[in-house]
Amino acid sequence: MTTARLPLFPLNSVLFPGLVIPLNVFEQRYRALMHDLSELPEEMPRRFGVVAIRDGHEVAPSAPGLPGETPPEPGPAAGFGPEPLRAFHGVGCVADAASIRPRPDGTYEVLATGTTRFRLLSVDASGPYLTGEIETLEEQQGDGAGALASGVVRAFRAYQKRLAGASESSLAGRAELPGEPRVLSYLVAAAMVLDTPTKQRLLQTPDTASRLADELKLLRGETAVMGKLPSLPAVDLTRRPTSPN
After folding, report:
1. Helices (H), the chain
2. Which of 77, 155, 171, 199 would staple 219 via disulfide (CB 3.0–4.6 Å)?
3. CB atoms < 10 A from the CB of 18, how many?
4. At what angle do helices 181-191 and 208-227 cross, to 10 degrees?
5. CB atoms within 10 A of CB 50
6. What are φ and ψ of residue 96, in 5° steps?
7. Cα(131)–Cα(122) distance, rounded to whole angstroms?
8. Spatial CA neighbour of 237 closest among 150, 149, 175
9. pLDDT for 234 beyond 50
10. pLDDT tens string 171-230
11. Residues 6+ apart with CB under 8 A from 10
12. Residues 61, 192, 111, 73: what is their CA dihedral angle, to the nearest 10 degrees?
């Protein structure tokens, strides 16, 4: 494991390795972050750390463009209290910005991909945006990951069918799921309709086999519950909502 310092981008959602996430960046602190990343030499990676918010607000209540009578709260830690480290979950994901597009109004349109998990060790609020000392987390495959992956694929297909209310034939044209257990575990974790604490639990699971075993229980449980409901709307499991910031 290695340590490093990265800019932080807190969200009300969990980013997993391999997941592509679009960001609509309009708050000043994150605009400053994207400006600095875009100024890096082309050959350098444009990385930042995404952490899920445990207690706080993704967008400060007084952010420009939002309704409210409260005067702007200064500083990069706005909305996260006096100790930002406590406001965030302890495990996050490094994001690599594939594109950072400035708009005429000074905001940014960003497309990033999750790469590596990390543990957040400390948070520094002395600059224009939050930075954190992180420790990268390696992942072991664990015992029985291959067999668990096969079970998760079957359970996930049944889950998709129940969630979308689709027939078996309508699922035939879907793209094949990845065969590599670790990649599969992250894709399923990102695609399932779960609350943030549950997704966070899946992110910080120490090994792939344990994550797949947890997902198998969740998939079977959710599918059983949905089987008792009269109908469900179709849902695109691969779509990720754009973060407001």
Report:
1. 28-38, 84-87, 145-164, 181-191, 196-203, 208-227
2. 155
3. 17
4. 40
5. 24
6. -110, 115
7. 8
8. 175
9. no
10. 444 567 888 999 999 999 999 999 999 999 999 999 999 999 999 999 999 888 877 665
11. 50, 51, 52, 53, 56, 58, 80, 87, 88, 130
12. 10
